[in-house]
Amino acid sequence: MVDSMPNGDKDLNSVIEHSLTQFASNPCLGTREMQMEETTDEEGNVKQVPKYGKYKWKTYEEVYTMAKYLARSFVNHDLCPEVNGGGEKMRMIGLYSKNREEWCITDIACVISSVVTIPLYDTLGDNSVSFIVNQTEMTTIVMGKDKIDHIIKLKTSGKIDSVQNIVLMDPTSENEKEKLRQADLKVLDYTFLLEDGEKNRVKLAKPTHKTIFTICYTSGTTGDPKGVISNHHNYAAVMGGLLKTGFDIKENDTHYSYLPLAHVFERAAHWGLLSQGGKIGYYVGDVTKIKEDCGVLKPTIFCSVPRLLNRFYDLMQDGINKLTGFKRKLLNRGVKIKMNNLMKNGSVKDSIYDALVFNKFKKILGSKVRIIITGSAPIGGEVLSFLKIAFSCRVFEAYGQTETTAGLTITNYKDGTSGHVGGVFPHNEIKLVDVPEMDYTSQDIIEGEKQPRGEICCRGFNTFIGYFKAPDKTAETKDEDGWVHTGDIGQILPNGALRIIDRKKNIFKLAQGEYIAAEKLEIAFSKLEIVQQIFIYGDSLQSYLVAVIVPEKSAVEKWAAETGKDIKGFSDEEYQQFINGEEFKNYFDTLIKETRKNEKLSGLEVPKAIFCTSEEFSVENDLLTPTFKLKRNEAKKKYLNEIKAMYKGEKLQGE
């Protein structure tokens, strides 16, 4: 079992020092140059808008030197005093901003001085921020100036009393600094700390592999977030395991960073690139500019989530549907040949058709991408297979949790099949535990073959230490033998791959006593081209399921056109009326029946009533976590009137 980097490093300080000796002059972190430009809006008002240029790079030596200076100042100014971390003394600091080079430099500064980082998601609300701050008793937050108003609001309302110091990553006006001071907060400039650290010679405490690296709070689909404690060894083992799977990061690789650094997926990707001398280019802070950023950066490694990859897929399909004549025949021929080769031997390249057709698709990500990895949620097999041949590169699907330091299983890029999350990483082992109340056992026979099913449990060098100041919750998740119980239900396929089929925690009972697994059904119905997002709800006082669905608008428009209707010019109100009209719902019913047959669902597992909405579930409207998982409680609250209407006004549980 892999327990370290290929060179034997087990702590991140050794990792970054090793990179410094090998890649000192290599570009390391890059940010697009920005200047303000005047523009006039439709009403004739003159505004200042940012204009972005090329990426400007800092070398490994420059990054390490800045991190060293910053670390010295953290110690010199007592910005991270020791606190009792549930029986263990530790020093910690908060990180609260979008992805940017200062975030990574601060992370490295904490690594080389044995300070524990507490990342705060850029999109966290008041309750989550105050809970994390109060539980960790952090005194200092390093942040972007866009967070000033939020922090002042929390501080003046008595919700984050422990916070005393704010380190501002951005140049900030004296007026804004004074507002922070009036809220009883000491203000320190990032540049001042760098200059001060260059002068002082404070000795830094180097970590060992057992030193706590970070406390990464789960985004909390229900209840308060939980602080997942991970040490240096957890991350070193995961990176060492990843490098043995065909995910071969190279010195000349470029990674595009837009997924939140507060999440373990992006954090592990960062340290993977840093360990091999690769470079990391940051997004400009606006996800609508991802395509533009990639056009400039031309990344070779792209870490993503299904939500964005599905958008790319839809964009490509729209382009394909507009083709006619010879171009359409040529593309169809290319798709057929490449799909056959993918299934036969895992090949994703074809010199002729790539030059004629598929290189145009590669331009979406800047033309040079060679590795794509997706995680955090399921992705449709059809989508995954098409992305492999469209981008002509290795596409991995990985599965894991914050508690398993991201990596638990990963697909083999040569495997042409889809619909599973691959085999076990070499840094951990898994087992399936029977869940008899859901009829999942190790002896299950599926389509005539033994295919064990049960709750996925993981044990290895990647599993977390425990939840911060929550031993009771730790005991619920990690047993005495070190097995982490994920709450996910898996199935071992005949080829040895793991398929995620259900979720143990999100089950509920209908009035007739039938247990229903909501996430399993949401995964099944999400395979429909016309479903962009779905929330399935069941109530123990009711005998059937209902669903709130966000239809994929391009698919709705396509179906409407096929039935002789042009709805592309509809207003938002007209579109909302259309998707809740009888004709569209009848069409949807036929798709639901097909899904029931294809997925072998029982009648009780099919929603009897649906409500369609044009408003997407998003982080901004608090229906998704920062990692794009559905917040079921919030969704129920938002659509309570619609849910009650689908249940014809009947009383729901708890009323």
Category by helix and strand content = alpha/beta
Mean pLDDT, rounded to whole units? Answer: 90
Distance linking N and C termini: 52 Å
Instruction: Characterize the biggest β-sheet.
Output: 6 strands, mixed
Radius of gyration: 26 Å
Number of structural units classed as domains: 3
User: How much of the polypeptide forms β-strand, as a percent range?
Assistant: 15-25%
At CATH's second level, what is the architecture of the largest domain? Answer: 3-Layer(aba) Sandwich
List keywords for this structure.
single chain, 655 residues, alpha/beta, Rossmann fold, GMP Synthetase, Chain A, domain 3, 3 domains, 5-stranded mixed beta sheet, 21 helices, globular, ANL_N_sf, long-chain fatty acid-CoA ligase activity, AMP-dep_synth/lig_dom
What does this structure look like?
The chain is an alpha/beta fold. The protein has 3 domains: 12-32 and 50-250, Rossmann fold; 302-460 and 472-503, ANL, N-terminal domain (Rossmann fold, 3-Layer(aba) Sandwich); 507-646, GMP Synthetase, Chain A, domain 3 (2-Layer Sandwich). It has 21 helices and 29 strands. β25 and β26 form a beta hairpin. α2 (60-76) crosses α3 (101-111) and α12 crosses α14. The longest helix is centred in the middle third of the chain and has 21 residues, at 325-345.
